[in-house]
User: What shape does this take?
Amino acid sequence: MEVIISPDTETASGAAARVVARLVREKPNAVLGLATGSTPLKLYRKLIQLHNEEELDFSEVTTFNLDEYVGLEKEHPQSYHAFMWEHLFSQINIKPENVHIPDGMAKDIPVFCAAYERAIAEAGGIDLQVLGIGSDGHIGFNEPTSSFASRTRIKTLTQQTVQDNARFFDGDESQVPHHCITMGIGTIMDAKRCIMLAFGEEKAEAIAATVEGPVASMVPASILQHHPNAKVFIDNPAAAGLKLSDYYRWVYDGKPDWQRDA
Ligand code: GLP
Assistant: This one.
């Protein structure tokens, strides 16, 4: 795992955006796996900026989102559909038919999940998966003890995640759905590359456990230690628990630009 520690979220998001942009320039029909939450917002803003100012072209790009709440209509302001259209898709030239987000209103969830997996495979697999991390180490909505072999399926959120995400629902926990559809950890691990972003001291413990702890289903993100091409973009507060932070900085500072964006 490559750890890139930046002085602030702006710099970290810019570095992550350059990796995504380089892929899209090299492979215009790239398949991107995308995440929601507050963490990737600046990354999406940078991608919009690159689209507006440097003609970064998304017309042939396909996307698959990690997850969605069960029971929320696409139009619900807190649905991940609404989030993605508001913060990214409506501001770039992506074709709506190339956008895939789990359907939280699917009548037959297992059938929907199997079709989602098939659609990813038919698109040629995910070239680059963007990830955030929950304070309990979850990726997508794969909560602690999720199987490392799991595929897209329904999951129940932990009470911690319900509490964490209540801030998007006017702070009202009772409005946060308890179920979701999420890509599995096996689905995420099949992506050719993964980039994780994590900001703030509230993520420091999860990041330390992910990067330097034992690989364990109690910290789902720790499976990324087994991924052949995973980068973790964090700010100083999120790096606070890392034992080898000086080493990660030294490695990154010693790289030529072309290798940083690769
Ligand atoms: C949700 C999402 C995750 C995201 C996490 C962290 O649980 N399902 O994909 O990584 O929130 O959110 P934030 O970036 O707002 O801290």
Remarks:
- The chain has one domain: 2-152+182-257.
- The pocket of GLP is lined by residues 35-39, 66-67, 132-134, 140-141, 161, 165 (CB under 6 Å).
- The chain has a mean pLDDT of 97.
- The domain at 2-152+182-257 is CATH 3.40.50.1360 (Rossmann fold).
